[in-house]
Amino acid sequence: MRIQSGIEGFDELVQGGLVPERVYLLSGPPGSGKTTFGMQFLVQGATFGESGLYVTLLESPQNVINDMSNYSLNVATLIKMKKLLFADLGPTLEYGYMDELHEVISSDSDASNSSMEAPSPATVFKEIAAYVNEYNIKRLVIDSVSAIRFTTKDRMSEEKEMGRFVRNLKRLGCTTILLSEMTDPTAYSTEQFASHGVVFLHNFLYGKKMARALQIIKMRGTKHDCNMMQLEFTEKGLKVASYLE
Ligand SMILES: Nc1ncnc2c1ncn2[C@@H]1O[C@H](COP(=O)(O)OP(=O)(O)OP(=O)(O)O)[C@@H](O)[C@H]1O
Ligand SMILES: [Mg+2]
After folding, report:
1. Each residue's pLDDT tens digit in the chain (245 positions)?
2. pTM of the entire predicted model
């Protein structure tokens, strides 16, 4: 069985959609469309009754909601219906917005949004697992893994921690998209190896113009090619168009 991604033109590239209850990594440079992709994925599920959780670590949920309200994705309605939830697990950078946005799940833990320190993968996982169980979350987006990557003391334990993080996410019973700011496609990370699927979003100089593209790097158990597909922004968010010639 496959579930629909919510991104027009994407499911056809991966034999009809994503295999549910797996962990996928979506990587790309700033402004390449990671948040938009993640939100479309959650909206698709939420529209058909699957609760979705968007975890922010670097950005406030209110900013994400504001940015996404530019698209006709019905984000506000789905939030009101409690089908789309946001959890801010990053260090607190601003105060007061929580009062205005009751739909945001607040965290009580000292290790998360009440301190200025970035939370560790283990603390973030524990909080996510609690929300997934409490709210019966079926689709999960974590924005972003880069935010929790650099919290361990050395490179070895960092890789180990990320491996554990992804392995534990696989047991949560929801379909997860990890967003990552990694921009160098040749610098392979533990989360790329550990994820079931890896998709890159590109934004690069192509001839004399900038081009946006999507590339499926890997998708376990799925027949796909690895070519660059043109990516467009429409009023409904991202859309995968034809091959980049
Ligand atoms: N109608 C629109 N509303 C908002 N953004 C749009 C729209 N059309 C195109 N965009 C593009 O979408 C980009 C933002 O997309 P998105 O936030 O999904 O990217 P991102 O990869 O998550 O970025 P970041 O690395 O900053 O988190 C903008 O920089 C802009 O170029
Ligand atoms: Mg983003």
Report:
1. 999 999 999 999 999 999 999 999 999 999 999 999 999 999 999 999 999 999 999 889 999 999 999 999 999 999 999 999 999 998 754 444 444 444 566 444 444 444 556 688 999 999 999 999 999 999 999 999 988 887 767 888 888 999 999 999 999 999 999 999 976 667 788 999 999 999 999 999 998 999 999 999 999 999 999 999 999 999 999 999 999 88
2. 0.91
Which strand (E) or helix (H) includes residue 46? helix 34-47
By residue range, what is the domain housing residue 184? 11-243
Query: Which domain CATH number covers 193?
Result: 3.40.50.300
Ligand 2 centroid to Cα of residue 212, in Å, is 15
Task: Give me the number of domains the chain comprises.
Answer: 1
Q: How far is the CA of 13 from the centre of ligand 2 (A)?
A: 23
CA-wise closest residue to 240 among 201, 193, 194, 204: 201
* Domain contains 5: no
Report the residue among 32, 36, 54, 65 best suited for mutation to probe ligand 1: largest number of ligand atoms under 8 A from its CB.
36
Long-range contacts of 64-70 (CB under 8 A, 24+ apart): 64/35, 64/39, 64/143, 65/101, 67/35, 68/35, 68/36, 68/39
Mutational pocket test of ligand 1: of 25, 26, 34, the residue with most ligand atoms within 8 Å of the beta carbon: 34
Cβ of 34 less than 6 Å from ligand 1: yes
